[in-house]
Design a protein that fits this description.
Blueprint (H helix, E strand, L loop, with lengths): L2 H20 L3 H6 L24 H18 L8 H11 L4 H16 L3 H10 L3 H13 L10 H32 L13 H11 L11 H9 L17 H14 L8 H5 L5 H20 L3 H23 L36
Helix pairs in contact: 3-5, 4-14, 5-8, 5-11, 5-13, 7-11, 8-11, 8-14, 13-14
Length: about 350
């Protein structure tokens, strides 16, 4: 018998038996709980953008512009007395040039927010607080950043229409008022001198240094229009860039509002962006011409002329041209009618008188 081989066989059998004894039973392995599955919990989504809105003071600016235009355009040329002329002159001249530029941009921004494609494109891009913060910085640094978003050309058309069409209506009303200053002179009261002329001039000059009167009754409707709850009744075609400052700044402000980032705390900074030196100078010149005209006007019909020409025609032309619109070309005044020249009188030849001799 080969003992070494036998030993190896028994050793292998022993090892197998030992392994069997040491191994846990099958039922014990099956009863051991499995480790819990790894569940992936995604991070919470970034907070959504705030509602589309403009600062309260910006809405007040837009309301002041809208109310001023409505008052001025509603002026009837059918004046019947001096107090009526004085009130119309006060309403038509109640603005400070640079304040009117700021108010026009605010009103243009509300109009630009009427384009849902533009608003949606801006909000889609600002899908996180970091993106919105960066976008606001880009917009404040350069108004042209707003032109990168879909629908900006139509939004620009709406802003242009809101500001420029109002300017053209004011221009047309001013022409009618100016014509009335000639037609009304057949009424005796129109030729009477204005009472308290120095006080009237001082009042107009003081108004020229102050913002337009408060128009709180217009604010709620403009707030609803800016948020999309109650759209403005405004239509316009898309306008390709480049845009004049008032239109570009309206889009700039509207884009920040669409991001939900136009907070009340940001009002002063946003209002400071509404600058247009050309339009401001044009309105300032119109005001100076109005002051000079009123300073020398005496009868009521001359006040009517000053109001129609400088407070309305000139101001309306400034607003319309500031957004790229063209005012109608006024025909040249007709030449003066030549008075007929009477024919020369025929010379009368008198016969010499002869004196008879006495």
């Amino acid at each position: 018998m080969n003992r070494p081989g036998t030993v190896r066989v028994f050793a292998m059998i022993g090892a197998a038996a030992a392994a069997t004894v040491c191994a846990p039973p099958i039922w014990s392995a099956m009863a051991r709980p499995k480790p819990p599955p790894v569940i992936y919990v995604p991070p919470p989504p970034p907070p959504p953008a705030g509602p589309v809105s403009l600062p309260a003071h910006t809405l007040a600016d837009a309301a002041a512009f809208q109310a001023y235009m409505e008052r001025a355009v509603a002026t009837s040329p059918a004046f019947v007395d001096g107090p009526g002329v004085a009130k119309a002159l006060k309403d038509a001249s109640a603005f400070e040039p640079h304040g009117l530029v700021r108010d026009a941009v605010a009103y243009g921004a509300v109009a630009a927010l009427q384009d849902p494609i533009f608003v949606a494109a801006v909000r889609d891009a600002g899908d996180s607080p970091d993106n919105r913060r960066l976008m606001v910085g880009y917009l404040i640094a350069d108004a042209r950043y707003a032109l990168l978003f879909k629908g900006s050309d139509h939004a620009a058309g709406l802003a242009r229409e809101a500001i420029g069409a109002g300017g053209l209506r004011l221009y047309a009303t001013g022409k009618a008022i100016r014509q009335a200053s000639y037609d009304i002179q057949h009424q005796p009261w129109s030729k009477e001198d204005v009472l308290d002329r120095p006080d009237r001039l001082k009042m107009i000059e003081t108004q020229g240094l102050q913002p337009p009167p408060d128009a709180a009754d217009h604010v709620d409707a403009l707030r609803a229009a800016a948020s999309g709850a109650q759209p403005m009744s405004l239509t316009a075609a898309a306008v390709p860039p480049p845009y004049p400052p008032l239109v570009a700044e309206s889009l700039q402000l509207a884009a920040i509002a669409a991001l939900g980032e136009a907070s009340d705390d940001l009002y002063d900074r946003l209002a400071g962006l509404a600058e247009d030196e050309t339009t401001g100078s044009c309105l300032h010149e119109a005001k100076l011409n109005l002051f000079q005209c009123v300073a020398v006007a005496k009868p009521h019909y001359e006040d009517i002329y000053c109001m129609g020409q400088h407070a309305m025609v000139d101001t309306g032309a400034c607003l319309a041209t500031s957004v790229g619109m063209t005012v109608p070309v006024e025909p040249p005044p007709p030449p003066p009618v030549a008075k007929p020249v009477p024919p020369p009188k025929k010379a009368v030849h008198h016969k010499p008188v002869t004196h008879k001799k006495a």
